[in-house]
Amino acid sequence: MARARTSPRQGSRPPLPPRGASAGSFEAPLRWAPWAILAGGAVVFQGALRYFFGQDDFAGLARASGVLPRMRGVWRYVSGQLYFDAMWRSAGLHAWVYHSTSLAAHLGCALLLYHLLARRLSRPAALVGAIGFATHPALYTALYSISGIGEILACLFALAALRFAVAPGPWTWAAPAAFALSLLAKESTLLLPVAMAIGFGLPPRERERVRRPALACALLAAAYAVEFLRSDVFRVRGGLPENAAYALAGPLDAGRNLLTYLGWTSNLFLPTVRGVGDAVDPLVFPWGVALGVICLAGLLSPALRSRGWASAGLTWVLFLIPVLPLKSHTYHYYLYAPMTAAAWALGAAFDGLVSARLTPRAATAAAVSWPRRSRSRGPCSSTRSRPSRSSSRTCAATRRWTAPGSPATSMTPCVAPRSRAAPASRSGRRRSPRACGTRSGSRWSATGPPTSARRSSMAWGFA
Predict the structure, then answer these.
(1) Is the pTM above the cut of 0.90?
(2) Residue 18 gets which letter from DSSP?
(3) What is the DSSP string of 124-174?
(4) What residue ranges do the domains of the chain occupy?
């Protein structure tokens, strides 16, 4: 006996939204986003390729060529010795190769940051944050100076450690290895384990998984700190005069440094930048005060707090603590690692304040376009047993998903496909029609999705 014809893919499982979805079609996959990040960073910093070596670069070249003795100990051994060894053998004195490597590493940091942001925020918000990091003018000294590769490599390995910390299986234990490489590049990421513990760069559902990797990274940080103090690289234990390069600052000087770094972070517009010197800059103090007020005011917003606003602000401070007490060292490239936290805050602000306004339009557009698509691959079937051919059955299945802290909800009606008869089973019986959103032999039911779908922050409802 021939089987009755049924509509294709009737009752099939509807597609899930991408990870980190906000709502509606606002969360469309941005396949061009990595190319936009690469283009933005390359256009802004392509001028570094025409520069020669700087004053600090010749010490690394001399160690690699044997003119100066090699570095001893673990302090910055990756960026100060191994990097120059590899580049000296492959590039010699061709400065553009060194600058190209720095630019490539910088763009790698931006792409990895975009990946981490997209796991927590919507993809447009992740794109805004990543481009803000890739093109920020305060990072110019890290790319125009070849010796600034230490900041870039430290940040790159730190972001890799954050990603490995939530990776499945044995990849989780690659996080301590990546963090060790970050410390060997530069000590600016020393407090990364604390940032991991407060949830920086992690969705809320994955914070429990990072406890053991964060503990291992904390032990590595403690061991590095002990070795750093024992070796006394900057001769701090013997006492330094006030005019020394690494003299420690008092509370007032540390406050001035903090306002300068806050001002450099927020003042990124060409007409308002009045200087590019690496020193305490009183001209940006108003910008720093304004940014501090905005950070504190953002803590009052549930939408921003749910998107990691507080952890981003704390991480910005944590990455600056190793250099904040330096009296004579207030440099732009010290903002390289903290700028990842600033990019996170920028993406969170975009996602919380802008996407909520765009969502109603996206939901309306989706409601208009979905019925056409559902006639060929509708996710639901009707509860009526034998409808007429000319009738169009509309089920009230709705898809609802909201980003953390977002009140927006998209409701998309779907039109069930026409079917002449209920499908026949192999035993000859006709299957009973299923409720909207179900599928024979599957774990979908009218009460909701399976456990895996519940974990994806999507809620299904039926009116």
Answers:
(1) no
(2) P
(3) HHHHHHHHHHHT-GGGHHHHHSGGGHHHHHHHHHHHHHHHHHT-SGGGGGH
(4) 24-353, 377-420+432-462
